[in-house]
Specification:
The chain is of the alpha/beta class. 42% of the residues lie in helices and 14% in strands. The chain is globular, with a radius of gyration of 19 Å.
Length: 308
């Protein structure tokens, strides 16, 4: 059966550990897995601009022995003159994997329904699961075992990052607290899915409005930009709405003494995070960014093996 990775809970807890173990090995031994030797090709579609996603997938595919085919907006018929289903059928005969950074999550689901090769969600409006794998790898490097750790995510909790932290961290057996203002909380169905997973893994899910309560004693403090792509016209309003959720040194001090700070980037200093935090000793964001390469290489290698 062809395996896809569209949302964080497409991996079971045991499978997530396998991928993270492989990611750690690939960081130590970058060329020890070459499933794309040939080279075999991977189609990498971008409906949104990107830095980390583009470079990490292009580098990762190459290090696995393959050739990335980068497709920018307007360079293919996908979803315009040609249906997603037909695109999936055609590409399945030409490439070994399809990676897609897009808007509506339903498009990824349609692609996976008709593809005979693995489909990877490199970002959608609902989920950002590849980022969460990199975050989990970074936390393991700093903290060891993931199960039992507490993480706090602050800000716009209704976005793809808030959703993926709930699912991915619950899968890892972590206690995930998500704090955002009223009207900016995760979708109830995703909260329910995360709670179900947490009940199986020993983790927990808590939705809050108080940032201090979320950070209290936390091992990991996380935020994201308040103004995502397409929200530029809302910048002033969103800054006013989320001002209380800025990660400052004072807020970080309420976490555990050895708490680390994560941000998926790009970051806007003095909006969602103080410069002293992101550029300070508790910050792990540069390891986090690098780990996009290793975690995604591990994911691609694992999916190819499981889909044989």
């Amino acid at each position: 059966m062809t395996r896809h990775f569209l949302r964080d809970d497409d991996l079971t807890p045991a499978e997530q550990r396998e991928v993270l173990d492989l990611a750690a090995r690939l960081k130590r031994e970058p060329f020890s897995e070459r499933p794309l030797e040939g080279p075999r090709s991977v189609a990498v579609f971008f409906d949104k601009t990107s830095t980390r996603t583009r470079f990490s997938f292009a580098a990762g595919v190459a290090e696995l022995g393959g050739s990335p085919i980068i497709v920018n907006p307007g360079e293919a018929q996908l979803g315009a003159k040609e249906s997603i289903a037909d695109t999936a059928r055609v590409l399945s005969r030409m490439v070994s994997m399809i990676v897609w950074r897009t808007f509506a999550h339903a498009g990824l689901e349609e692609m996976a329904a008709h593809a005979e090769v693995p489909v990877v969600n490199s970002l959608s409006d609902d989920f950002h699961p590849c980022q969460i794998l990199a975050d989990l790898q970074t936390i393991r490097e700093r903290k060891g075992e993931l199960a039992g750790l507490t993480a706090a995510y602050l800000g716009d909790a209704a976005n793809n990052m808030g959703h993926s932290y709930l699912l991915g961290f619950a899968t890892a057996g972590m206690h995930i607290r998500v704090a955002g203002p009223a009207g900016f909380h995760p979708r109830p169905d995703i909260v329910a899915d995360a709670e179900r997973i947490a009940a199986e893994t020993g983790g927990s899910v808590t939705i809050l409005t108080d940032p201090a309560a979320a950070v209290a004693g936390a091992d990991v403090v996380i935020t994201d930009t308040w103004v995502s792509m397409g929200q530029e016209d809302e910048k002033a309003a969103r800054i006013a709405t989320f001002g209380a959720y800025r990660v400052t040194p004072e807020l970080m001090a309420q976490g555990a003494d050895d708490a680390i700070f994560l941000h998926c980037l790009p970051a806007y200093r003095e909006y969602e995070v103080a410069a002293e935090v992101i550029d300070g000793p508790q910050s792990a964001v540069w390891d986090e960014a690098e780990n996009r390469v290793h975690a995604q290489k591990a994911l691609m290698a694992w999916l190819l093996k499981e889909s044989e």
